[in-house]
Automatic annotation (TrEMBL):
Name of this protein: 2,5-diketo-D-gluconic acid reductase
Lineage of the species this protein comes from: Bacteria, Bacillati, Bacillota, Clostridia, Eubacteriales
Positions annotated as active site in the UniProt record: Y52
Gene3D superfamilies attached to this UniProt entry: NADP-dependent oxidoreductase domain
Coiled-coil intervals, chain numbering: 75-102
Source superkingdom: Bacteria
InterPro entries, sorted: AKR (IPR020471), Aldo/ket_reductase_CS (IPR018170), NAD(P)_OxRdtase_dom_sf (IPR036812), NADP_OxRdtase_dom (IPR023210)
């Protein structure tokens, strides 16, 4: 079994594959080729989003891969700008249609605030009430069997607390930007305190850390690439990790993780700052 088949248990009892293929910043053509290749070569977890505008291509790719629906995990996200019950219902139905499936394994609220406000350092309206309306629509779809698990993304601890304190259905994950040298410990601590797993997106810093000499020293020690060390780091921290690549060589390399980082090397990587 490769590490792409390893699973973690979510707080609703569902098992999620610990490594998935991220599809952010992929064109529809890139998503089709990458998802199909990944599924044909061992991946069983695809991470998408309505905002990526490539769900239909990813859906065609899994259909054409020949892999059975029950053997793969599909995640998608409700756009950050959708902050009402009816809008969330429509997003879910649209993603079911785009992925050509009767159910989605995981649906996330993509961001607690519309992106323009979130990128302005999260000041102003936290959208507590509106996120609960979106969550209500998600819970209804979950209870109807259209979604297997519900979660959030980019949620500050207070935003996560808002959902947990006002719903009988707890988020199973908080998907955040996470990499060596940028671990957002306050987000991680809040999630772990509530039995919520962290999903690490952009574990390679969208390429930012690939030329990092400090990480390369560790990679050379294990005869691995910086990317492989970065992904393995997230795995050993107990997180779900979502590396993205459109290059077949790197898609394969990102799951070739037949090594373990020593405690000493983990401590060293913990000491780095890649912000």
């Amino acid at each position: 079994m490769g590490k792409e088949k390893i699973t973690l248990k979510l707080n609703n009892g569902t098992a999620i594959p610990q490594i998935g293929l991220g599809t952010w910043q992929m064109s529809p053509e890139e998503a089709y080729d990458s998802v199909k290749f990944a599924l044909e070569n061992g991946y069983i977890h695809i991470d998408g989003a309505r905002a990526y505008a490539n769900s239909e291509a990813s859906g065609r790719a899994w259909k054409d891969s020949g892999v059975k629906r029950e053997d793969i995990w599909i995640t998608t996200k409700i756009r950050a700008e959708i902050k009402d019950y009816e809008g969330a219902q429509e997003e879910i139905e649209n993603e079911l249609a785009s992925f050509q499936t009767d159910y989605l394994d995981l649906v996330l609220i993509h961001c607690p605030q519309p992106w323009a406000e979130y990128k302005a350092n999260g000041e102003g309206n936290r959208y507590f009430k509106e996120n609960l309306e979106v969550w209500k629509a998600m819970v209804e779809a979950y209870e109807a069997g259209k979604i297997k698990a519900l979660g959030v993304s980019n949620f500050h601890p207070v935003d996560l607390e808002n959902i947990i304190n006002n719903s009988d259905v707890k988020p199973v994950v908080n998907q955040i930007s996470y990499r060596i040298g940028y671990t957002q410990d306050n987000y991680v601590e809040a999630a772990e305190a509530n039995d919520v797993l962290i999903e690490a997106y952009s574990p390679l810093g969208t390429g930012k850390i690939l030329n990092n000499d400090d990480i390369k020293k560790i990679a050379d020690k294990y005869s691995k690439s910086v990317a492989q060390v970065a992904i393995q780091y997230c795995l050993q921290k107990g997180h779900i990790v979502l590396p993205k690549s459109v290059t077949p060589k790197y898609i394969l390399e990102n799951i070739e993780l037949d090594f373990e980082l020593s405690a000493e090397d983990l401590d060293y990587l913990d000491s780095l700052d890649t912000k």
